[in-house]
User: Fold this.
Amino acid sequence: MWFIWLATGLALLVAAGLYVRRRLVAAAGALGLGARGRAALRWVWLWLVFGYPVIVFATVAVSLIVGGERMGAPQHPLVTWGLILPWFLSVLVVFQATPYLLVLDLVRRLRRRAVPAAPSMSRRHAAAVLGVLGAFAVYTPARIAWEHGDLRWRHHVVQAPAPAGGAARGAPPPRLRIAFLADLQQDAHTTAADARAIIERLNAQEPDLVLSGGDWINMGPDHVAAAARSAGLARSRLGTFSVRGDHEHFVYVERARGVAEVTAAMRAEGVEMLHNEVRRFDHHGRTVAVAFLTYSYPARTPDDEIERLIAGVEDADLAILVTHQLDAAIAARARDRVDLILAAHTHGGQVNPVIGLWHAPLARLETPYTDGRYRLGATTIIVTAGVGYSIVPFRYAAPGSVETIDVVW
Assistant:
């Protein structure tokens, strides 16, 4: 599915990028920019909007041709500030400005029908075009800078189901505190120091159990050991357990090798990264069963295996399903059969552009469960927005989060 979204996004980028370039150059010309200036503007725009993806695809192609084994792109500050950020900001301006420019063009066409002698682009229209592009060129980086480092620490209270048959089982046990975090994606942008500060604050919550939705690293092998050390700092009575995320598969071109390396590094630090397994814990006489489901773009678990995992926790006093990705089909299958679903992956959209007048969570294109708490029958769903970054080292109208869940009887 991911390559379909990638192809669709690239097609939209080409169409919108060329359209905005044409309107920008025409507006600059209407306001007096000469032929040489317009030619330079065309080439600068092509570089800003299309330069980075061309370089990325060329790099991947060369790596495959020569048989490279690593995955990941350079994380040097010059690459970040000189290439990645200018490209992504330009793309955001393109997509956010396009609807407004289309409206302006529609108004211009209607005006030309009413006044045939009107110029193809008046100075007023040109100023409006540049005003739209300029507004987004200022607002977008300003919002990103303002929200940089925002991390929500959300607390949830979940009511555990009554004992089977309604029979009393003595005094209810104390609350079970679960810490749930995901998508730290440790790299040059979410550093070991950043991760350590987050884990230390998590430990201060005194959780009984630490669960993770995966994506401890971003890309490549350079931060695997450091990410495992960060994960190993988590402290709880019952231990730390994680599913595999997308990015655990993005260490090497040979995905199985990367998954094995991350799993081994985590195990060495006392963190278990589980693949389609059920673990049971005793909480003061109550059985807590957790199904750890491997479900991400690189690794889809078949339906029969998902069914086995859910069936394996249904008899527990508290049934939990942990997965990296959560789509509507998995949620529907688990509805009323597990008490709590914990999921990650979406980053709350991570980059949520303005569509019309509001920021739209793009993660909604692939799942109805994008960020926060949901109710599906008797099942509670909690989706964390995560901590780190994917593809680009910033968030836009999508602050991160770490979840603490108190299960009470």
